[in-house]
Amino acid sequence: MSKRAVEALLEFEEVHLFLRGIVPLIGYRWTTVAYERGERFAGESKYPLKKMISFAFDGITSFSIKPIRFVLNIGLLISAFSFVMLFWTLIEKFVGTTVPGWTSLMVSVWMLGGIQLICLGVIGEYVGKIYGETKKRPKFFIERTII
Description:
This protein is an all-alpha fold. It contains five helices and no strands. The longest helix is centred in the C-terminal third of the chain and has 33 residues, at 102-134. It is elongated and about 80 Å long.
């Protein structure tokens, strides 16, 4: 990295820097260096699947609140489905093919599960916004000054 890019990188005040995501955020020109890597001839990789999954999770959570929004959307979907379940269980109750208590149990389980996920998603949105603010990422980088 150039000195200018390193200086821009030093402006990030985060404790846990996810460098593979932050370096492209700097926005300076970059290129790749292609090379052929030979097979490992001694030992085993010190980067097992568990570490790779952890690394991927760090990358996702460092730059996105989409997992939180996914939970919110699942909650909305389950709540909508609970209304369908309400009508279906009421029809089954009036037809007489249910056991006593089954209708209220089914509707309450689906409805409360959906409401809980919606609440978690809303709280998560707030936490995600707080998390983004506490990173104190620079809003821009000055590539060069003319004067």
